[in-house]
Design a protein that fits this description.
methyltransferase activity; three-stranded antiparallel sheet; two-stranded antiparallel ribbon; mainly beta; MT-A70-like; VHL domain-containing protein; about 20% strand; single chain; 7 strands
Length: about 150
């Protein structure tokens, strides 16, 4: 999830924001047995462990760590069922040239900004940059995965 947290930028844009209490209302009992919840933290909220996603390009951070308004990392929180914790002891990615790309999982993305493969994208922005020529009609056959992703 990449919620619309309240921050100075959002206040200037007069965008919608999400109340902090919504996180405590997530139904973790509904999470798949090996499910994982990733929540991006874009403001200065507190958390137990400091998790950072370092954005790199050509093996180097995308910008300097000393820039005033921009940093080469994003904070996030991971949550899973207790029996699945050992599956997620490390998170890795490839050196990408995109704003942000998660490793490919079969998942639900809340507050999505774009459409991703094997993902149900929910939010106000996923279709903004899409062309109708990229959409599949209900009558069209959608290729099925040969085996489930795990």
């Amino acid at each position: 999830m990449d919620p619309p947290w309240e921050n100075r930028s959002v206040k200037r844009q007069k965008s919608y924001v999400m109340d902090d209490s919504v996180l405590s209302q997530i139904e973790m009992d509904s999470l798949a047995p090996n499910g994982l919840v990733v929540v991006w933290i874009t403001n200065r909220k507190g958390y137990v462990v400091n998790c950072l996603w370092l954005r790199i390009s050509n093996g180097e951070p995308v910008c300097s760590f000393s820039e005033f308004h921009k940093v080469p990392y994003e904070r996030f929180v991971l949550a899973s069922r207790p029996q699945s914790v050992s599956r997620y002891t490390s998170v890795s990615t490839l050196d990408g040239k995109f704003h942000f790309t998660l490793p490919i999982f079969r998942c639900l993305e809340l507050f999505a900004r774009s459409l991703l493969p094997n993902t149900v994208s929910v939010g106000f922005e996923p279709l903004l940059l899409q062309s109708s020529s990229c959409l599949v009609t209900r009558e069209a056959k959608v290729p099925q995965l040969k085996k489930p992703l795990s």
